[in-house]
Amino acid sequence: MTSSTEQARTNPATHRRKHQWIGAATLVAVAALILPWLLTPRFESIREQGPPLTRLPDPPQISSEYVAPSAIDQAVLQESRDKLDGLMGAPIGDEAQASFILQVGAFQNRQNAQTLQLKLEALDIGRVYLRTEESLTRVYVGPLLDRTTAESAVITIETQLSLKAQIEQYDVREHGQT
To answer: Which alpha helices (H) appear in 90-139, and where do they start and end?
Structure first.
């Protein structure tokens, strides 16, 4: 049987490698102990040289007084409901309560309708929207509140874009969903 010193003499490369591993482990251990000590900041100097620390102000006090909700006038509320029911149930042909929309075009190609929509939005005459039904995409402007506003919008479209718009009565049941 051979001793470890005899093995070291017989194989010097193994002996050298063993010493290299021991040296590397020693360096790692020393670095793990000394580096944190070297890199730890001096908190006393930070406290002395840093900005002064102050307390945050207390949050504002909230009053605990009872605030009564505003009363709703039931007569006004019922009158408003009745008026709304009257408008929703009004016949389409009633010019006194009607508002109007303009149909400016109908296209099979939706992209052409979107191009016209951008041109009409630039005129700033009212809300412009598209409605697709089967293979046609229609371009609408409105709703406009009265017939004179609708007629002046038609004139603007004719002069600016050279297009003829058709005035139709606006019915929320037909044109309300976009």
So the answer is: 110-123
Q: Are strands 99-107 and 166-170 parallel, antiparallel or unpaired?
A: antiparallel
Do residues 143 and 101 make contact, with C-beta atoms less than 8 angstroms apart?
yes
Distance from the first to the final alpha carbon of the chain: 98
Say how far apart CA 34 and CA 106 lie, in whole Å: 82
Residues of 105-141 as b/e, b for ≥16 C-beta within 10 angstroms? bebeeeeebeebbeebeeeebbebebbeeeeebebbb
Report residue 178's pLDDT band, with 50, 70 and 90 as the boundaries.
very low
**pLDDT tens-digit series, residues 101-131:** 888 888 898 898 899 888 888 888 888 888 8
Q: Cβ distance 107 to 113 under 8 Å?
A: yes
Give the CATH architecture of domain 97-172: 2-Layer Sandwich (3.30)
Q: How many residues does the chain have?
A: 178
Say how far apart CA 138 and CA 154 lie, in whole Å: 16
**φ, ψ of residue 20 in degrees (nearest 5):** -65, -45
The domains of the chain are located at: 11-49, 97-172
Enclosing H/E stretch for 168: strand 166-170
The whole-angstrom separation of Cα 20 and Cα 31 is 16
